[in-house]
Specification:
Length: 265
């Protein structure tokens, strides 16, 4: 498989040390980890991502989206004085990739880029006048056809890992969820209890983990403490909805009043 800018000498895949790699460090700052990490995505996912305001980070299913990489086919190329604009399609949608020209990127011809070939693109999702595009830092032709299929599978794997947690390794009774979703340091650990809740959405797992580690009395944990622990990037309504769903499923219950919670034994 082609290496280029993606994966170094590791045979493709996640950037070392990112939340999407097995070598991610759980002790690091989550928000900076995610914003600096390269996530494989489809164009449909880029078009589905949202942001609260023009200066806010992009998010997909409540997970921050930092740098992204896609694989697709060049439909057209527009050469301009200061940048090149590529229309990219991958079977799930279409998006523009804009690359600013400098001494290192001296136009598409020098890079071997032309219409109808497949390329890998890396950069950051941007929007201007409600039109989305990738502010491209790297773009290169794909020479190995397997890279296209690898990218599709990798994008699916990352998305499912965020939604469901990383499954236990074969032959292991305990799995380790190294996905550090959202901006909380309360990632799901390698305990039997975390396996029990691995099917839950990310925010609910974060709440469960916090209750596991901080329920020191029968009075329970006040909702304000829960909000401080998992609240970065999550508004009060999302946290309230997550607690309601955990109660409906019988995972948590209220104690002193409607604002104190304990994990069901």
């Amino acid at each position: 498989m082609s290496q280029g800018f993606y994966g170094g000498s590791g045979g493709g895949g996640y950037l070392p040390g990112s939340p999407f790699s097995a070598t991610a460090s759980p002790g690091g700052g989550q928000k900076s980890e995610l914003s600096a990490s390269l996530r494989p995505m489809t164009i449909a996912q880029l078009n589905k991502a949202t942001q609260l305001h023009p200066e806010a980070e992009w998010r997909l299913d409540d997970i921050e989206v930092g740098q992204v990489t896609i694989v697709g086919q060049i439909l057209s190329i527009q050469q301009q004085a200061t940048n090149s604009v590529y229309a990219i399609v991958d079977g799930t949608g279409t998006i523009e990739a804009r690359q600013w020209l400098n001494t290192d990127t001296d136009g598409s011809i020098q890079q071997g880029l032309k219409e109808n070939i497949y390329v890998r693109v890396a950069g950051n999702l941007k929007a201007f006048n409600s039109r989305r595009y990738i502010n491209t830092t790297h773009i290169r032709p794909i020479t190995d056809p397997h890279e296209l299929y690898f990218h599709i599978l990798e994008s699916m794997t990352v998305t499912l890992s965020f939604e469901r947690g990383v499954p236990a390794a074969p032959g292991s009774a305990k799995g380790k969820d190294v996905v550090m979703a959202d901006a909380s340091v309360y990632n799901v650990g390698s305990t039997a209890t975390s396996d029990q809740f691995s099917h839950l959405p990310v925010l609910q797992r974060q709440i469960v983990r916090f209750l596991q580690e901080n329920s020191t009395s029968d009075e329970g944990v006040h909702v304000s403490a829960i909000a401080r622990a998992v609240g970065s990037g999550n508004d009060a309504q999302k946290i309230s909805d997550a607690l309601d769903k955990l109660m409906d499923a019988g995972h948590v219950y209220t104690t002193l009043d409607e604002s104190h919670f304990l994990l069901t034994a």
